[in-house]
Design brief:
By secondary structure, this protein is of the alpha/beta class. The chain folds into 4 domains: 131 residues, Rossmann fold (3-Layer(aba) Sandwich); 162 residues, Beta-Lactamase (2-Layer Sandwich), CATH 3.30.450.40; 164 residues, Reverse transcriptase/Diguanylate cyclase domain (Alpha-Beta Plaits), CATH 3.30.70; 249 residues, TIM Barrel (Alpha-Beta Barrel), CATH 3.20.20.450. Helix content is 47%, strand content 22%. It has 26 helices and 30 strands. The protein has an 8-stranded mixed beta barrel with strand order 22-23-25-26-27-28-29-30, surrounded by 4 helices. Strands 8, 9, 10, 11, 12, 13 and 14 form a 7-stranded antiparallel β-sheet that branches. α5 packs parallel to α10, α7 runs antiparallel to α10 and α17 runs parallel beside α19. It is elongated and about 135 Å long.
Length: 755
């Protein structure tokens, strides 16, 4: 056997070769080819004659390549190769064969050998080349195998995360915890952190940090982006940044100089998180055990984890939007209390329970006393703040969390007391409410004392359905107001005084048109880009000869209930069309006049003909008339509504949805309705500068409207900040006190003259 050469296979050291050959002459020939002229060779050769001794040598390690003769004293043929390959699959094997065994050598290559050489037909140069190529090819095969394994592992993790319930349900915090932990374990890094930008993009907030050694999550830290401008700018321009060593990489020089790098971190792999085309954050992977070369699979995995975070954020935003829309449908946008829809649902459920358990329930109808005077004093903003405080105080005065307090409009509230045993229980709650309102409300620097007039009805004695119970409690509340306010009244069928009061008001309402007591005030609608008046909204006022100016909130519901709204609405429509034609005839630039349609009007047969008649009498082109409808109105009978709106639109009349955002219109129907304009409700405009949710809703309404090719008008714009916000976010038009209050026609004429 040839003498053994020195071992070692490090860079620059000889390649360690194991020759398994039982023929000493052939072994020496190989050794001579690998070390010509006795000089130092690039190869270190170890010779073995038997398979058993070869396996013992291989068990010690330190072998880079095997030269194998298939015919050995203790093993023969292809089995020799297969046994050897099963023991050391990671070491490349080159088969040495004679002419007679060449077919067997080919089969060994098919089974995984790197190559074969025919003895006697190879020189040292060829042998050296084949051996080096075999090592490189085996190394490439191993790298490919490892790459495929990593890719399969990464894909499995990504698929499992994508199916996670936390992503599907929009639980962002739980989703981030799951993502960061999976990333740390998959990439075998110490820390994974998700940073999210603040609104001005100047700092990053830690939304979740997972530390593998402690198996712990944390959040809340902040990172100032301005300290590392070059790094974060570069990061936003690609899918990821892979840094093998932060101490030598030029891109992380800012980290080292500012001493802001995390303790012990040597390598990092960061990927930007993008949402809606914008970079909203970063997911960072931190390696602490010295430098690390990141593979292409790891880099792509980091970018995929950033995409998963983006999906989690989208799901979370969608969940928040759904919750917000649900609140819009069932809760009062000002006070956050249940609205009429939700209250009636809870009342119906409570009656079913009361019927089954033979219990009572009570409905308290509360009207604030003289709130209009306070509202006029404070203005809309102060009045709204006061109503919020009223809602909070009412809620705190209730017995149990199962009791419901609801705002059903204006200064009217209702309370549901379920599961009571006797009427005295409801009276005690009423007295508790009255006592709670003896304390003043502080608005700004002013103190205000408020009181309620309260009407109470009971199930089942005062009504066996929700509508009757609410109506009878309302009747009792009017009786309480008649009795001097700041008191409560139990419902009694003999409340003739209240009925008489309503009858007198109804009788006066029936004669108001013929007595010329109605007035129309006009509020300009202004184009935000040009500042021009493009339309006016016609608003009804009633000047009663004895009662003075009566607010629409007091007589419009009565007009709706009695059906008087139909002739009143026709008078408003006729008068507004005539006035608009008069402005045109006087030479003013044509504008639209906008008229509100009530639910009762819209449900009347012949509405289209009524509109046609008003236009013909005034000789007004239909394109200068706009009709406003509420969301709830158009959704009452959507199929019928579509047909009526289509007829009006075909006539040339402009159609708009008033108070948009407070109802429950289906986007599917919204696309089908021939609507031209949306009017954003004042409840969203009021706080859009200070309330991010309202700001987001206003932006969403504007974006959605424009995507449907609809005009957008913002109502009740009162401040310059509101105006600038609307202008910057693409709102088309606005109306509000910042430009003009509703004014009589002669005052509006002066505004048109200045236009």
């Amino acid at each position: 056997m040839c003498p053994n050469t020195r071992n070692g296979a490090n860079d620059g050291s000889p390649i360690q070769v194991l020759l398994i050959e039982d023929n000493p002459q052939h072994a020496c020939l190989v050794e001579a080819m690998l070390a010509p002229n006795g000089r130092d060779s690039a190869f270190a050769l170890k010779c073995e004659r038997r398979l058993r001794e070869s396996l013992e040598h291989l068990a010690k390690g330190n072998t880079d390549l095997i030269l194998l003769d298939l015919t050995l004293p203790d093993s023969n043929g292809l089995d020799t190769f297969l046994k050897l390959q099963s023991e050391v699959p990671e070491i490349p094997i080159v088969v040495l064969t004679g002419h007679d065994d060449e077919e067997m050598a080919l089969e060994a290559v098919r089974q995984g050998a790197q190559d074969y050489l025919v003895k006697g037909q190879v020189d040292g140069k060829v042998l050296s080349h084949v051996m080096r190529y075999a090592i490189e090819r085996k190394r490439a095969e191993e790298q490919l195998r490892q790459s495929e394994q990593r890719l399969q592992k990464h894909n499995k993790v990504l698929v499992e995360l994508a199916k996670s319930r936390n992503l599907a349900t929009g639980s962002l915090n739980l989703a981030l915890r799951e993502i960061t932990k999976a990333a740390a374990q998959t990439l075998d890094v110490e820390r994974v952190v998700v940073w999210l930008y603040d609104q001005d993009h100047k700092s990053l907030r830690c939304a979740n940090l997972y530390e593998k050694s402690a198996d712990a999550h944390s959040e809340g830290r902040r990172l100032e982006v301005t300290k590392y401008p070059n790094y974060f700018q570069a990061l936003e321009q690609g899918r990821f940044i892979a840094v093998d060593d932060i101490q030598t990489d030029e891109r992380t020089k800012e980290f080292v100089e500012s001493e802001a790098s995390e303790n012990g971190v040597r390598a990092l792999l960061d990927a930007p998180i993008r949402l809606g085309g914008q970079t909203v954050g970063i997911i960072g992977h931190r390696h602490v055990d010295g430098p690390r070369a990141w593979t292409s699979e790891e880099q792509n995995f980091a970018a995929s984890m950033a995409d998963l975070v983006s999906l989690a954020m989208e799901a979370s935003e969608r969940k928040r939007a759904e919750e917000r829309l649900s609140r819009l449908a069932y809760y009062d946008s000002l006070t956050g209390l249940p609205n009429r829809t939700l209250f009636m649902d809870r009342l119906n459920r409570a009656m079913m329970t009361a019927r089954q358990k033979q219990l009572l329930l009570a409905v308290l109808f509360l009207g604030l006393d003289h709130f209009k005077r306070i509202n006029d004093t404070l203005g809309h903003s102060g009045g709204d703040d006061l109503l919020k405080a009223v809602g909070d105080r009412l809620t705190s005065a209730l017995r149990y969390t199962t009791d419901t307090v609801s705002r059903i409009g204006g200064d009217l509230f209702v309370v549901l007391l379920s599961g009571i045993l006797k009427t005295e229980n409801a009276i005690k709650v009423t007295e508790r409410i009255t006592h709670a309102f003896k304390k003043p409300f502080l608005v700004g620097s002013n103190e205000f004392f408020l009181s309620f007039s309260i009407g109470i009805s009971f199930y089942p004695t005062d009504g066996r359905d929700a509508t009757t119970l609410l109506k009878n409690a309302d009747t009792s509340m009017f009786r309480a107001k008649q009795q001097g306010r700041n008191n409560y009244q139990l419902y009694s069928p003999s409340m003739n005084a209240t009925a008489l009061e309503r009858l007198v008001l109804e009788n006066s309402l029936r004669h108001a048109i013929e007595r010329d007591e109605f007035r129309i005030h006009y509020q300009p609608i202004v184009h935000l880009a040009s500042g021009a008046i493009t339309a006016v909204e016609a608003l009804l006022r009633w000047e009663h000869p004895n009662l003075g100016l009566i607010a629409p909130a007091e007589f419009i519901p009565l007009a709706e209930e009695t059906g008087l709204i139909v002739p009143i609405g026709e008078w408003v429509l006729d008068t507004a069309c005539v006035q608009n034609k008069a402005w045109q005839s006087a030479g003013y630039e044509p504008i639209k006049v906008s008229v509100n349609l009530s639910a009762r009007q819209f449900q009347q047969p012949g509405l289209v003909e009524t509109v046609q008649n008003a236009l013909q009498k005034a000789r007004l082109d239909p394109k200068y008339l706009e009709l406003e409808l509420t969301e709830s109105l158009i959704m009452q009978n959507a199929e019928t509504t579509v047909e009526i709106l289509r007829q009006l639109s075909d006539m040339g009349v402009t159609l708009s949805i008033d108070d948009f955002g407070t109802g429950y219109s289906s986007l599917n129907y919204l696309k089908r309705f021939p609507i031209h304009r949306l009017k954003i409700d004042r409840s969203f405009v009021h706080d859009l500068v200070t309330d991010p949710d309202d700001a987001a809703i206003v932006k969403a309404i504007i974006s959605m409207a424009h995507s449907l090719k609809l005009d957008v008008v913002a109502e009740s714009v009162e401040t310059q900040e509101q105006l600038e916000f609307l202008r910057q976010n693409g709102c088309d038009k606005m109306q509000g006190f910042i430009f003009s209050r509703p004014v009589p026609s002669e005052v509006l004429t002066q505004l048109l003259s200045r236009k």
